[in-house]
Structures are given as structure tokens and as C-alpha cells.
Amino acid sequence: MSKLAVQLRRWPYRQPHAFLAVAAALWFALYQALNPLSEALVVLLPVARNSHLGGALQFFLYDTPKVLLLLTGVVFVMGIVHTFVSPERTRALLSGRRLGAGNAMAAILGIVTPFCSCSAVPLFIGFLQAGVPLGVTFSFLISAPMVNEVALALLLGMFGWKVAALYLGMGLLVAIVAGLVIGKLDMERHLEDWVRAMQSTQAVVTFEGSGMPWGERIDSGFHHVREIVGKVWPYVLVGIALGAGIHGYVPEDFMASIMGKDAPWWSVPAAVAIGVPMYANAAGIIPVVEALIGKGAALGTVLAFMMSVIALSAPEVIILRKVLKPQLIATFAAVVAAGILLVGYVFNAVL
Fold first, then answer.
1. Which has more confidence, 202 or 276?
2. How far apart are CA 274 and CA 119, in angstroms?
3. Measured distance CA(62)–CA(76) in Å, rounded
4. Rg of the Cα atoms in the chain
5. What is each CA distance from 322 to 82, 238, 285, in whole angstroms?
6. Is this prediction's pTM over 0.70?
7. Cα torsion for 255, 259, 262, 265, to the nearest 10°?
8. Which of 62, 104, 136, 211 has the fewest beta carbons closer than 10 A?
């Protein structure tokens, strides 16, 4: 091993706070540079940027490092947090609250974290890693992409405060109720074995919060990154590749034709079925929503389509498959789909 490599390995032990400050600055700088870097890379390719393929390539080149950076950062921080607070204490804190309080807290936290469905998965894994109850983690996973300030602001500007407030209330309701239902089903056994083993291992280990050197805390963070990111990253690549392939080909005319205000009852489930294979965040799908509304589509049907795109996407399911067994994924999809259908029908009935 070179002298420089040895010095780098010793750095977290000798100057842990300086190491963390530099690492955080580098992480933030990389995150901020992702969009211009992805744009620059696409320009170098023999593909027109405004073409469907150009849009798909930019999406993949931007979202892949973004999700991996988020996953690495969250897992690293959770690894350090474990050296201060045991999973038993975290679990007791949320489980000891009255019914639904933990779900409501997680759903509200999801609103202030403007993540798409795939970007929310790292925090979902971090919550499981910390021993947070499964139903509570699902409330976060659902609300984070489904309801956020970007969608609220754009809906407020386009349709007024009543539509924005109804969207907020219904989105929160879906996230909280879905998390409660999944929690009541006691489906922890349907977590993948490596996740359950990780939780069991963490449950046995306790830490003296004030006695552990910071170098060892940082080592704990790196250990968690190797264990978790090392298992999940192939699924991240496959999921985002699927999303990128679909991203540039949104068939607005076809969708508007089956989402009209006079369309039959099955237009809402049809819109959800169309939205699930697609992948975008709230800011990316709102222009599509506006275009569909402009073509005469019913608002409730379009919002159901939007929610299925950002909260129940196929790429998200592919990434979650590394963490959840098929039975739990199917339950999650069924409960969320039922909530989204309810939102669509309520909006169409009220507005």
C-alpha cells in the first residue's frame, strides 16, 4: 500500500471532524454538479439533446449517480447514527406513540424531502436499518414522491389553492392509511433475509455514545455502505435504465383520449396502469399533467396518473425487489394503487 493510501486510511482517526467536513463538501459539490455534467456528456454524444433518445440519456446520466450518491450518503450517516442510538431505542420511540402518530410523522417528513420514488428508497432502507417499524417506513416511501412542495406549488399556480389543498390532504391520507394497513399485516417476515439479518445484528450491538472514538464511528459508516450499497447498486442501475428508456416517450395524445371528462369509470384504473411503467419526479410530470388537462382530460384521472408515475413506478419496484420479497411488494403496490384510485374518483366527483 502506498504512503498516500496509508495516510488517507489514518485520516479519519487523526482528524475525524476535518475528514467529515471535507467529505460532506465533496458530496455536496458532486451532487450539485450532476445536472450540468449530465448535460455536458450528452452534448459530447452523437445524439440531439432535444430528441427522445437525448432526453433518455440525460435522464440516465443524471439519475444514476444522484440515486447512488443519496444511497451512499444516507447509509453512511445511518451507520454513524447507530453508534449513538441503538435500533431498540429508535423502534421504541416510534412504536410507543399512539396508533398512526409514527405514520403521520413519517408522511409529513416525506413531504419536505423532494425525492422521486427511486431517490426515496435510500431513506427507506435507512429507516429499516435503524429499526423503524415497517408500516412507518412505507408511509414515508409513499409520501416522499407522491406529495412534495414542487407539485404543490405548481398545482397552486395552475389550478388554485382548493385543488392544491385537496391534493395535499388526499396524498397524506393515502400515505398514512397505506402505512397503517401494511403495518397491521405484520409483514416483516417478507423483508429479504439480508435486511432482517442486518436488523438482528444491529439489535444485538449496543454502543456507548460518549466513549467510542470518532474514527470508529466513521468506520461504522463505511461498513454500512459496503454492506448495503454493495448489494443494492445493480438494482438501481436496472431500475433507472428502465425509467430512462420510457422517460422521453410520453404518449400525451393517446392518454388524453382515454382520460376525458366523459370517459367511462375504467379510465381512472387505466390511467394508473399506464402510469406505473413510467418514471419521473413531480416537477417532470406536472407539465404532462398540464398538457393533458389542456386537451380536455379529467383532473382526477390525470392526478391518479401522476401519482402512479411518481409513487408506484416500475423502476422503484425493481430497486425495492432487492430489499423486499415479492409478497410484500405486491401488498405495497395493491394498497397504494387502491389509494390512488380513491384520489382519482374523489377528484372527479368533487370537481
1. 276
2. 21
3. 21
4. 21
5. 22, 12, 27
6. no
7. 120
8. 211
Total number of residues shown for the chain:
351
In the predicted structure, residue 99 carries a pLDDT above the cut 80: no
Which residue do the cell numbers 417528513 mark? 109
DSSP string, 10-29: HHHHHSHHHHHHHHHHHHHH
Which of 131-135, 141-145, 155-159, 325-329 is predicted with the least confidence, judged by mean pLDDT? 155-159
* Cβ pair 287, 247 in contact under 8 A: no
d(CA 306, CA 192): 29
- Residue 293 contacts residue 328 (beta carbons within 8 Å): no
| C-alpha closest to that of 224 among 185, 248, 246, 198 | 198
CA distance 252 to 258: 10
CA angle 134, 331, 198 (to 5 degrees): 35
Identity of the amino acid at 300 = G
- Give the 3-state secondary structure of residue 260: strand
